[in-house]
């Protein structure tokens, strides 16, 4: 049985997924130890941008009928979340553009160049090919899981959603 969600609830849960703290499994992808605080913070930021990118990329595949409504609302919530944080938002937008340029769905591994870009930002040792492979596998798994959300969720309408969105806009 599919879980019923409104478009607002779905968009908020997608945005919440970007805000969660990384687990040790994510740091293990690049073997970043706990005592490397600055490196962890940098990786956390880029990884959250990656999640944002994969989320936006998966919406049309997961919800082809509601893609415009979900994307519009997701982008509105994203803008509200980063209102007044122009420097952070600019950095995120720059990374999103880089990821978009590096993604190639003509390849067997469409995210291999994204994985390479991220790894090369953090890893200078010769073992980086292993990290690229591990991160690429992880990115592909995440993307597949994000697409499959459409199989587990049934979207329902709630007229109250529009009121909530308007109130959020007024607060910011």
Commentary on this structure:
Helix 1 packs antiparallel against helix 3 (37-62) and helix 3 (37-62) packs antiparallel against helix 4 (67-81). The chain has one domain. It is 72% helix and 5% strand. The longest helix has 26 residues, at 37-62. The chain has helices spanning 7-19, 24-28, 37-62, 67-81, 86-102, 112-122, 128-152, 160-171, and strands at residues 3-6, 153-156. It has a two-stranded parallel sheet.
Put the structure in a nutshell.
The chain has one domain. Helices cover 72% and strands 5% of the residues.
Task: For this entry, give a set of tags.
172 residues, two-stranded parallel sheet, 72% helix, 5% strand, globular
Number of domains: 1
Number of strands: 2
Poorly predicted runs of 5 or more residues: none
Mean pLDDT: 86
The share of residues in helices is: over 70%
Helix and strand run: EHHHHHHHEH
Q: Give a short account of the largest sheet.
A: 2 strands, parallel
Strand order of the largest sheet: 1-2
Residue fraction in strands: under 5%
Q: Give the overall shape, derived from the CA principal axes.
A: globular
Structural class: mainly alpha
Question: Rg, please?
Answer: 17 Å
**N- and C-termini, Cα separation:** 37 Å
- Count of helical regions: 8
What is the secondary structure topology, with strand pairs?
Elements: E1 3-6, H1 7-19, H2 24-28, H3 37-62, H4 67-81, H5 86-102, H6 112-122, H7 128-152, E2 153-156, H8 160-171
Parallel strand pairs: 1-2
């Amino acid at each position: 049985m599919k879980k019923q969600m409104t478009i607002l609830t779905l968009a908020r849960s997608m945005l919440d997924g970007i805000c969660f703290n990384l687990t040790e499994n994510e740091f293990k992808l690049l073997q970043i130890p706990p005592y490397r605080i600055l490196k962890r913070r940098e990786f956390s930021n880029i990884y959250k941008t990656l999640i944002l990118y994969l989320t936006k990329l998966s919406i049309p595949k997961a919800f082809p009928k509601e893609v415009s409504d979900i994307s519009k609302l997701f982008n509105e919530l994203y803008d509200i979340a980063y209102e007044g944080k122009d420097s952070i938002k600019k950095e995120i937008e720059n990374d999103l553009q880089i990821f978009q340029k590096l993604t190639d769905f003509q390849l067997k591994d469409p995210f291999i160049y994204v994985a390479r870009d991220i790894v090369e930002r953090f890893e200078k040792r010769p073992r980086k090919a292993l990290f690229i492979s591990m991160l690429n596998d992880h990115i592909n798994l995440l993307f597949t899981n994000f697409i499959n959300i459409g199989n587990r969720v049934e979207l329902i309408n709630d007229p109250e959603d529009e009121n909530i969105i308007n109130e959020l806009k007024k607060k910011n």
